[in-house]
Amino acid sequence: MEYVMLVNPDEAYEYFLGTLSNRTRIKILNELLSGEKNVSELTAAIGV
Fold first, then answer.
1. CA distance 48 to 46
2. Res 20: pLDDT
3. Which of 34, 43, 35 lies closest to 16, judged by CA?
4. Are 46 and 31 in contact (CB under 8 A)?
5. CA 29 vs CA 11, 26, 32, 45: distances in Å
6. How far is Cα 34 from Cα 42, in angstroms, rounded to an integer?
7. How far apart (Å, rounded) are the C-alpha atoms in residues 42 and 48?
8. H runs (alpha helix) in 1-48
9. What angle (nearest 5°) sits at the alpha carbon of residue 12, between those of residues 10 and 18?
10. b (16+ CB within 10 A) / e for 26-38
11. What is the pTM of this model?
């Protein structure tokens, strides 16, 4: 059985960022300052 929760994009970001430590959030924000990145690029850049 597969469960799918539908949320709007703003809620999705809140859930996603809520699971990360403050240090990881800061790393993500620093990486995004240089431009858009996809999830693979972000995880490689911050070492997750």
1. 6
2. 76
3. 43
4. yes
5. 18, 5, 5, 11
6. 11
7. 8
8. 9-18, 22-32, 39-46
9. 105
10. ebbeebeeeeeee
11. 0.54
Return the structure tokens found at 26: 């800061």
Token look-up 């240090």 returns 23
Q: Are 16 and 28 in contact (CB under 8 A)?
A: no
Q: How many residues does the chain have?
A: 48
1-48 pLDDT, tens digit each? 566 667 677 777 777 777 777 888 888 889 999 999 988 998 899 887
